[in-house]
């Protein structure tokens, strides 16, 4: 009862501050939102998807664009632009509130080739394989042992000739003492409450957990599943150092 629960916290973000949780910028708190600011958040997905597809085409040549799966779709920031590049897109998320907000955005955009489903560690609510399996800025919020199980499942859903696009966080640029405090806060809820109060936040502000992955273990998982050469690009997001990994399953 004293530990922070990442699933519960993510649902609270979905219910209370879905757009803030996407970009971690104060002006996107729910009480400050208007249609223009919502659109600003959604537009950040346009450039992200365009960049990823450009990297895939440059590194692997032409690739099929039948179906795409995004693990951790949130409010639909990446699902929306993906829907213009793929015939069918599936977005999944652990938070029912996030899925409801994503559904509203899909309806506002008039998209008919997107479906949403609840996420779990085995993707039990999703059938089949996909031409693109994507997860970006998500797995760092998932405890590593659990996240590695999710990665194995995601890799297994890449169709022959399809692409895996996977982001993991591998280091932090913050001092070690701050990293140690983060670990303590996520494992002892009263300390998290104290940290919120000292930071001028609500005492019960949910925690956005941050976990570091062993890059070689992730590589081994991808290679063991039979995907080809892995292309890795560095990603700096706030104080997190990550790697975006791209790989293609041979035909």
| CATH fold description | Rossmann fold
Measured distance between first and last alpha carbons = 48 Å
Helix count, DSSP H or I runs of 4 or more residues: 9
CATH superfamily: Vaccinia Virus protein VP39
Query: What is the CATH architecture assignment?
Result: 3-Layer(aba) Sandwich
Helix and strand layout, with pairings?
Blueprint: H1 6-16, H2 18-23, H3 35-60, E1 67-71, H4 79-82, E2 88-93, H5 96-109, E3 114-118, E4 130-135, H6 144-156, E5 158-172, H7 176-187, H8 189-198, H9 215-224, E6 231-237, E7 240-248
Parallel strand pairs: 1-2, 1-4, 2-3, 4-5
Antiparallel strand pairs: 5-7, 6-7
Helix pairs in contact: 1-5, 7-8
Describe this structure in words.
- With 251 residues, the protein is an alpha/beta fold.
- The chain has a single domain, classed as Vaccinia Virus protein VP39 (Rossmann fold).
- Helix content is 42%, strand content 21%.
- It is built from nine helices and seven strands, in the order αααβαβαββαβαααββ.
- The protein has helices spanning 6-16, 18-23, 35-60, 79-82, 96-109, 144-156, 176-187, 189-198, 215-224; strands spanning 67-71, 88-93, 114-118, 130-135, 158-172, 231-237, 240-248.
- A seven-stranded mixed β-sheet has the order 3-2-1-4-5-7-6.
- Strand 4 (130-135), helix 6 and strand 5 (158-172) form a beta-alpha-beta unit.
- Helix 7 (176-187) packs across helix 8.
- The radius of gyration is 18 Å and the shape is globular.
Question: What's this model, at a glance?
Answer:
This protein is an alpha/beta fold and 251 residues long. Helix content is 42%, strand content 21%.
């Amino acid at each position: 009862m004293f530990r922070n629960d990442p699933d519960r916290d993510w649902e609270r973000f979905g219910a209370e501050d879905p757009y803030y949780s996407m970009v971690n910028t104060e002006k996107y708190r729910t009480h400050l939102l208007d249609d223009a600011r919502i659109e600003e958040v959604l537009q950040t997905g346009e450039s992200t998807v365009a960049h990823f597809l450009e990297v895939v085409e440059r590194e692997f040549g032409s690739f099929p664009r039948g179906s795409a799966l995004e693990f951790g779709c949130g409010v639909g920031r990446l699902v929306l632009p993906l829907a213009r590049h793929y015939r069918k897109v599936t977005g999944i998320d652990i938070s029912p509130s996030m899925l409801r907000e994503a559904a509203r955005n899909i309806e506002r955009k008039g998209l008919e080739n997107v479906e949403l489903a609840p996420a779990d560690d085995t993707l039990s609510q999703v059938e089949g394989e996909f031409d693109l399996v994507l997860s970006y800025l998500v797995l760092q919020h998932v405890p590593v042992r659990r996240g590695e199980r999710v990665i194995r499942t995601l890799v297994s859903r890449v169709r022959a000739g399809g692409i895996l696009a996977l982001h993991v966080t591998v280091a932090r640029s913050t001092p070690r003492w701050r990293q140690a405090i983060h670990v303590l806060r996520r494992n002892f809820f009263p300390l998290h409450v104290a940290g919120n109060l000292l930071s001028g936040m609500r005492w019960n502000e949910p925690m956005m957990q941050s976990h570091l992955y062993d890059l070689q273990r992730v590589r081994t998982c991808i290679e063991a599943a039979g995907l080809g050469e892995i292309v890795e690009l560095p990603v700096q997001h706030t104080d997190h150092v990550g790697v975006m990994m791209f790989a293609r399953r041979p035909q």
